[in-house]
Amino acid sequence: MLPTLSKLDCMLTEPKFRAAIVEMLRRAETALPEDIVRALKRSRGRERGRIARLQLDCMLKNLELAKRLGAPICQDTGTFTFFIRLGSELKLNFDLKKALDKAVAQATREVPLRANIVDPFTRKNTGTNVGIEQPSVHLELIPGKKLSIDLLVKGAGAENWSRFFMLRPADGGKAIERAVLLTLVEAGGQPCPPTIVGVGVGGSAEVAPVLAKRALLRSLDRPNPDAGLARLERRIAQAANRLGIGPMGLGGQTTVLGVHVEKAACHTASLPVAVALQCWAARRARARLLNGRLRVEAP
Q1: For residues 187 and 298, is the Cβ–Cβ distance under 8 A?
Q2: What pLDDT is recorded for position 1?
Q3: What pLDDT, on a 0 to 100 scale, did the predictor assign at position 6?
Q4: What is the pLDDT of residue 10?
Q5: Mean pLDDT, 10 residues at a time, over the chain (299 residues)?
Q6: Rounded to two decimals, what is the model's pTM?
Q7: Domain extents in the chain
Q8: Biggest alpha carbon–alpha carbon distance for the chain
């Protein structure tokens, strides 16, 4: 006899899952999380220069209009990275990746979103924001029947300044700080500062960049639970805000809103470091499975 799906599993159907993903994309694109808004307002209060204050005022007005009109915050509606934690005992009666693809294509039509995804050689646009390895999906299996999905939206201005370094293991935290500051100086105003800086340390050449992107999901209000990493984050953020790059690269005290560092174990002879910048429009969303329903949380 074939095993049957439990009542809880059956409640999460493909149409309901797809609807939740569309709602995640809609919310992420039209309203920023409150921790980002608070950080922008605090920065506005600290800035002394007229141009810096003007830029932050424009950002806050942009957010007000986007939320009221239900319109995307930025014309570059970005690319999408999903971080999924899936319970090993949760049985789904649909293909998760295919459902995500359908939801992205649906959101592209309905929100609407700019179609950004192209073939890397021919540059032919798919028109749906779906293509080979797009959207990007990182799946982690966990015990039980839980399901949580985090969405990170990144525009090309920030994504183009992603950097990867293989540092000398003996160099430690100072070398990591130098790598981040070098990235910020070279980037200038192009990633639309003030940015959030995600730093992935350790792992390997493919792990560190994923850690850096995952770091961007952490709320600015939530300190790093690792005391050593928290000190490194504060040190880099303070040094970054002394660079004078400022909002939109036009000068000021606010070059970064925060620095988030994640780490993984690595080879004794290696120190991989990846840097991922997120623009001031730091778009993200989260959904969790509760009582058989995938609930989208407030951004």
Answers
A1: no
A2: 41
A3: 53
A4: 53
A5: 48 95 98 98 97 98 97 98 97 96 98 98 98 98 96 98 97 95 98 98 98 98 97 98 98 98 97 98 97 87
A6: 0.94
A7: 7-29+73-155+284-296, 156-278
A8: 73
SS (H, E, C) the chain: CCCCCCHHHHHCCHHHHHHHHHHHHHHHHHCCCHHHHHHHHHHHHHCCCHHHHHHHHHHHHHHHHHHHHCCCCCCCCCEEEEEEEEECCCCCCCCHHHHHHHHHHHHHHHCCCCCCCECCCCCCECCCCCECCECEEEEEEECCCCEEEEEEEECHHHHCCCEEEEECHHHHHHHHHHHHHHHHHHHCCCCCCCEEEEEEEECCCCHHHHHHHHHCCCCCCCCCCCHHHHHHHHHHHHHHHCCCCCHHHCCCCCCEEEEEEEEECCCCCCEEEEEEEECCCCCEEEEEEECCEEEECCC
**R_g over Cα of the chain:** 20
CB 181 within 8 A of CB 268: no
Give phi and psi for 78, each to the nearest 5. 80, -170
Task: List 197's β-bridge partners, or say none.
Answer: 259, 277
Chain centre to alpha carbon of residue 158: 10
Query: pLDDT at position 2, please?
Result: 41
Q: Say if domain 7-29+73-155+284-296 classifies as CATH 3.20.170.
A: no
